[in-house]
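Consider this pair:
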Amino acid sequence: MLKKFSGEFGHDLLAEETGKAPTITYLNKHWKSKILLASTSLKSIGISSGRVLLRYSVTEFSENEKAEIERSLAAENERRKKMEEDFIQLKAKNDARAAMEAKYQKDFEERQAAEKQQRERDEEKMRQEFEKLV
């Protein structure tokens, strides 16, 4: 988004100067540094449609803050990777469970159909025996 507006303002809005970094503010939250801005989408900050006001500024940015942001991004990426692995495992379990349930349902329906046919044969046999007696 900032790349698009860079042309409109005549200079690179993502350029990091020594000790300073681009910052976007939305509501009470701040996204500071090119690294963090690159990994953040509008949807991830809660903007899905409509019009909103984002504030752009250049703020002081120390090496400690940069290291902290890189650590938090690495932790977030690790958390997402773990969640995706868990999702894949749980999806496989759910698929296996659904296949098993479908198999049990099919077996149950086949068993019911066989029992119904057997009952009908037994009833027909009893009817024929009764007719012989009468």
Residues 124 and 130 are 10 Å apart (CA to CA). Helices lie at 2-9, 34-38, 63-133.
